[in-house]
Amino acid sequence: MIKPEVYQALGLNDQEYGKIEQIMGREPSSTELAMFSVEWSEHCGYPRSRALIKNFPKDGKYPAMVGEDSGGIIVDDLAIIFKMESHNHPSQVEPKQGAATGVGGIIRDIFTAGARPIASLDSLRFGPLTDPYNRYLLKGVVDGIAFYGNCLGVPTVGGEIYFDESYSGNCLVNAMSIGVCHKDKLARAKAVGIGNPIMYVGSSTGRDGIGGCSVLASHEFSEGEEKRPTVQIGDPFTEKCLIEATLEMLDTGYVLGIKDMGAAGLTCSSAEMADAGEVGMEIDLDKVPLRETGMEAYEIMMSESQERMLVCVKKGKEKAVEDIFKKWDLHGVVIGHVTDDKKLRVKYQGKVVADINTEALAKAPIYHMPDEKPAYLDELQGFDFNSIPVPKDFNNVLLKLLASPTIASKAWVYEQYDHMVQVNTCVLPGSDAAVLRLKGRKIGLAATTDCNSRYCYLNPYVGAQIAVAEAARNLVCSGAEPAAVTDCLNFGNPEKPDRYYAFKNCVNGIIDACKFFGTPVVSGNVSFYNESPQGAINPTPSIGMIGILPDIDKRMTQSFKNEGDIIILLGENKNELGGSEYLKVIHDKVAGNSPALDLATEKALQKTVFEAIQAGLINSAHDCSEGGLAVALAECCFPGLGAQITCLPGSGEIRNDSLLFGESQTRVIVSCSPQNADKLEKLAKQNKVSFAKIGKVGGTKLMIEDLVDLPAQKAKQVWQSAID
Amino acid sequence: MKFGVIVFPGSNCDHDCFHVIDKVLKQPVKYIWHKETKLKDFDCIIIPGGFSYGDYLRCGAIARFSPIMEEVIKFANAGGLVIGICNGFQVLLEAGLLPGAMLRNKNLHFICKFVELKVENTDTPFSSGYNKGQIVRIPIAHNEGNYYIDAAGLEKLQANNQIVFRYVDNPNGAVDDIAGIVNEKGNVLGMMPHPERASEDELTSKDGLVVWESILKGFSK
Q1: pLDDT tens, B135-158?
Q2: Domain A4-39+187-362 in this protein, CATH class
Q3: Which fold is adopted by the domain B3-220?
Q4: What is the ipTM of this complex?
Q5: What is the pTM assigned to this prediction?
Q6: Which residues of A touch B15 (CB under 8 A)?
Q7: Is B15 annotated as catalytic?
Q8: Cβ of B20 and A439 within 8 Å?
Q9: CB-CB: which of A153, A415, A439 is closest to B12?
Q10: A681-706 pLDDT, tens digit each
Q11: Three-state secondary structure readout of A227-283
């Protein structure tokens, strides 16, 4: 008899165990139980999120592909494959290896689709740096991303980092990777053809990462737990060889299906490949290359050792595949074959240790979770801003904001990442979005990640829409047209109705915004249970978005370019302080409602900026985000040119702190030559977008009406030295 | 002019060097797998950047024992042009084709950024297209670029005019701000900055292209 303690230790509850017994028609073996526990875990099977995320839009300008492990779009003859995935809990426990294997895992998802990885981005969240443990996490995570990504030769070109108390005790590491290949070269993650061999390729299997997805990723952190043994260990050199060997193997045309052994390792790859191909599979664990002796069957099936793949190969081509992996000093061995009975049969030491229907195993049950509006929402949204005094010295406020780690320069981070290898990086990190060329083509690629989780905390639905809108805005400011989305949905415990309320509303916000912008959600990942004894993290639906530049030579950056250029604000300044970095840094408050967002106005603004760039009317474009107009203007000045801002719309009507530091959405600062200003105004009018000449580029100071007067280099120094 | 790009397991700038020679310099170029034992019919050998063998031992220390390195040493000793970039420079040091050694960057971090270099010696096949004293913008990307050589060795480098590039603002602690050196004969160059990353307009600097053009011009003469 299997005792409740056993299945509970594996992360299964009583109902789930009951269902397993029902499926099996008997008591499961220990190996079978272990396989169900990982495959049905939230991390692999999405039982608590599938009902909602299936509604993400799939249609856009470009044909979208939603694959088994990743997704993408087809542009001309090119498949652009991308996905974002979380590695939060492993990083909280062991930051270097947690982050490193997060990067390794997402990159494997890209090249298993047949695409060569060309860029990575990382969306990171930590608690305040005043806590030494958070500093340790930041250093470790950055070190891990650099350690793994640099060695692979995949440039880390962008991302974002936020700091907020809600992440103390549960940091977030969301890694995104992008790859490209000819559209006819895409690989599938399924097993086909009865009798075809199943090959295990890559590194050997050890005891690392056992239960990583079930025990670690699918539960909250509790006090005093030791979960370090569940973290995998990464070997980027092996992965680099695996990339080259895999792409070489896929080039032969001998591969029918391929899947990464990531979360839930051999269990997930075998079950899901068989299920996707509507076939069965028999594998013999005695053939699996092991790095330790005496491993039990369940350990081999659950291990999350890195840098391994499962491949379904055309019969008779085993030797050719083996030779390619031998060349790269990697394993390539036949461990089983495709069967016709839709069963996953696992043998070990001459015995059948598991025999499970693949569909029952691969399709985790779906739970419809109850949700309830959190009690804090009405109270915070009704916050009275009259209780907040308007500061007198705005220079000082601006300097404080520029030194806030969320706003400050991230050069200390991105200079540790090789962001130029592969020689495609046309806009270096630090601008609104990363811009990559696609060698030999006129079109280019822009990518960004965005999410202000404070807005999502204050208003889950609108906050998530803002994440989508801001990502799109960042792409547009770089000269690209937004094309498609991947998301990484980081939330607290879904079994708590108030957490689930935030999840549900964020998902709905993304669905509505993505439909409106015509940007399909092609891939993604859900990470629940981001809670520590201090509570849940802010709802954090990270949006990774890619855009296409019709002309790489028309890429745009945020910095002011020429003395005498006119500075123009497109969009409106509103009396909004809710959720702002200003409110948090200066007044130590997280309150109010998120900024408002009108999707139609946003779309019109983005259309205007995009058209202005394509028509060659403007010399810089920068969106206003954390820290508002004043911080955005300062960032435009940092390469060296100052600005005199003389007339801001809303000046005298709205609070001066709102005017300078409020985070109203749908605003972009552009600069253009005096002779282009009228054309730009006409274009804005056509699109019904607010247009205001607010000042001029020039000098060495940033001056904003009679409110701010700072040497730009002094502001830059403060901004540059905050994180190091 | 025929170029060869050596590929070790873990090389990751091999494609970039290949691309620049093929598409920008428009010269014939081939990859050479590290297990090959013949080096025939090449005019210039490029040892690219990356993490050969993962850099798990000292950088370049294992690559140096790859079969192809015997041939590269012979090729260099016979006067053939060899350029090692970043990890390739480290391999050349380990192989004894260039003097000195690499230590970790003084800040103990990987550093990737554009830096300014001063061209100190234009009397080499790799730098003849620059003006002496010219300041050029070429990026670095390394963990171990802190070049070290003892005082006697440094004196020799200086006396023989073997220092080709110096950092304007030393990013990694290298002795005498050294970013790139040649051997005594001048036919083997090692440099930490990546000229292949600064050879096209789209990449914000074309200052590195002069290295490739110098090689080609010298050969065509």
Answers
A1: 999 999 999 999 999 999 999 999
A2: alpha beta
A3: Rossmann fold (3.40.50)
A4: 0.96
A5: 0.95
A6: 422
A7: no
A8: no
A9: A153
A10: 999 999 999 999 999 999 999 999 99
A11: CHHHCCCCCHHHHHHHHHHHHHHHHCCCEEEEEECCCCHHHHHHHHHHHHCCCEEEE
